Amino acid sequence: MIDLHCHLDLYPDPHAVARKCAALGAYVLSVTTTPSAWKGTLTLAKEAPRIRTALGLHPQLIHERAAEVALFEQLLPSAQYVGEIGLDGGADFRSCRQQQHDVFDRILRACSAAGGRIMSVHSRGAASRVVDCLLRHPKAGIPVMHWFSGSAVELRRAAEAGFWFSVGPAMLATERGRSLIRLMPQDRVLTETDGPFARRNGQALMPWHVSAAVAPLAAIWSVNASEVAEILHANLRRLIASTPQRVAE
Ligand code: MN
Predict the structure, then answer these.
(1) Ligand 1 centre from 30 Cα, in Å?
(2) CA pair distance 237, 242, nearest whole angstrom
(3) Å from CA of 229 to ligand 1 middle
(4) How far does the centroid of ligand 1 lie from the alpha carbon of residue 150, in Å?
C-alpha cells in the first residue's frame, strides 16, 4: 500500500492514523502545508519507518505564510522529501500569483542548492507554469506531479521532462482523470489519497483507502490487481533509488 501524498497531520487524530498506517505496513509520504508544521509532523513517523515526512509550503497558503520560506530554507538540509509545494491558479489565489511564483522559485533554488529532493508538487490550474518553473530548475530534484489536472498537452510535456505522477481514488473517479492517467508513463506512476482533503462519498479519504485505486488502475493498464501492486512497488523502489541526495534523517 503506497500513499505518496497524504496530510497525516490534518486528521482529527493524526497519531491514531499513523499507528494504523504502521500496522498495515503502508508506505506514506506525509506532506505538510507549512514549514512550521514539519517538526511536529515528524513525530508521527517516529515508530513507522515506512512513513516519511515532507517539508512543504502549500501555494494556497502563500498569501499568509510567504515569510515561512526562510524557515523552509533553514530546515531543508534535514528533509529528504519536499511537499506540498507548487502553484495554484484558482480564482481565490489570483491576487497572490506573483508571490506564489517568487516563493516556488525560491524553494526550487533551495532544493537545487541542497543537491535535489523528491518533491510532491501541486499544479491545479497552473500546470504549464509549474512545468516551466520546474524546467528552469533541473537540479531541484524529482518532481512528482500530485493529482495532475492540466490538459493532455501539458501532461505530455511533464512526462517528456521525466516527471513522475501520483494519482488517487478521487482522480480515478472521473473520466477526465482516467483519461489523463492513460497518458502517464506506467513506470512513473504512484498512488496517493490527498486525504483528508480528498473525499469519497462525503467522507475524508484515509491513507489505506488508497487501495481503491488498484482496480481502476488495473482496468487502465489491462493487468490484474497483483500486477498493479508489483508495478507500483517497483516504481517506488526506483524512485527511492534515484533520490538525488541522501539526507541523514
Ligand atoms: Mn494535498
Answers:
(1) 10
(2) 9
(3) 23
(4) 16
Cα of 106 from ligand 1 centre, angstroms: 20
DSSP string covering 58-120? -GGGHHHHGGGHHHHHHHGGG-SEEEEEE----GGGGGGHHHHHHHHHHHHHHHHHTT-EEEE
Distance 145 CA to ligand 1 centre (A): 11
Ligand 1 center to 177 CA (angstroms): 16
pTM: 0.97
CA of residue 6 to ligand 1 center, whole Å:
7
CA of 122 to the centre of ligand 1 (A): 7
CB 55 within 8 A of CB 73: no
Q: What is the pLDDT along the chain (249 residues), one digit of tens a residue?
A: 999 999 999 999 999 999 999 999 999 999 999 999 999 999 999 989 999 999 999 999 999 998 999 999 999 999 999 999 999 999 888 889 999 999 999 999 999 999 999 999 999 999 999 999 999 999 999 999 999 999 999 999 999 999 999 999 999 999 999 999 999 999 999 999 999 999 988 899 999 999 999 999 999 999 999 999 999 999 999 999 998 878 866
